[in-house]
Amino acid sequence: MQYKQLSNGVFIPMLGFGTYEIDNSDVADAIQGALDAGYHHFDCAHIYGNEEAIGKAFKNSDVKREDLFITSKVWNADQGYDKTLKAFEQTLKDLQMDYLDLYLIHWPNEKDFQLTLDTWKALETLYNQGKIKAIGVSNFSEKQLKDVFSMAKVKPMVNQIERHPYKTQPELAAFDEANDIVNEGYSPIGHGHLILEDKTINEIAKKHGKTPAQVVLRWQIDTDFVIFPKSSKVARVKENFDIFDFNLTEDEIKDINALDQGKHLNY
Q1: Do 47 and 72 meet the contact criterion of CB atoms below 8 Å apart?
Q2: Which positions are annotated as binding substrate (predicted)?
Q3: Residue 106 labelled as part of a binding site
């Protein structure tokens, strides 16, 4: 496993397991399968509707809480100072945990950004109380981050954004890095077969004796993104974890970077 150090010194595993769209009936097997494969970083969110089942799955496993890195997110409807505090406590209750490793604002409120700023104040409060080891945002633009900077006592440590070979977001990623914000990429393979069928990626995969998915995930990490692919298939879960025995060359990274189309594939 490779790790990134956040601005406050906390280490985050660069490969995690996504829990989006995992049905409650499948959660127990999915979580145990991920743990068996070697995952210890899990990306969750209240809006996914499965945090209670995830909490039960961890309780029924033999993994120690201190060996896990758990992320969750506050949803749009729960933004605002008091509502965020309440939403956070619900997430802790559902997950059966007494702290989170990372808590994010899931989306900026485009219509009332003051609500988002109030939500950030709540995250700072929880962080200062020791209930969260790190705090950050998701889907924030450079301008929105600057607005948070203007009032924040604790700057965001993470920005989670859509990121895959057809949407590489180089300008935003560079801004994050310049401000000591770690980049996380969701939909790292693009939610579909377009990227996995791409000629360039398949040619690179053949050179390394790896699958196209493994090449894309390796590219994410080699370009300094924390990622968390999701699959309910045991073989695929193991395959996604088997990416730490090779590296891409600079030319291969450039070739994948050149595939960028600014194309939204998170569907």
Answers
A1: no
A2: 106
A3: yes
CATH 3.20.20.100 is held by the domain 3-257: yes
pLDDT, one tens digit per residue, over 131-151 is 999 999 999 999 999 999 999
Name the residue among 235, 195, 186 with its Cα closest to residue 215: 195
Beta strands, E only, the chain: 3-5, 11-13, 17-18, 41-43, 69-74, 102-105, 135-138, 158-162, 182-186, 226-227
The number of residues in the chain equals: 267
Domain boundaries, the chain: 3-257
The Cα–Cα gap between 173 and 169 comes to: 6
> Known catalytic residues?
48
Q: Which two tokens stand for residue 123?
A: 């995250």
Q: Which residue has the tokens 């991920």?
A: 34
**Residue 227, SS3 per DSSP:** strand
Report pLDDT digits (tens) over 144-195. Answer: 999 999 999 999 999 999 999 999 999 999 999 999 999 999 999 987 678 9
φ/ψ of 102, rounded to 5, equals -150, 135
- Give pTM, 2 decimals: 0.95
Residue 117 tokens, joined: 């700023």
* Segment 59-81, tens digit of pLDDT: 999 999 999 999 999 999 999 99
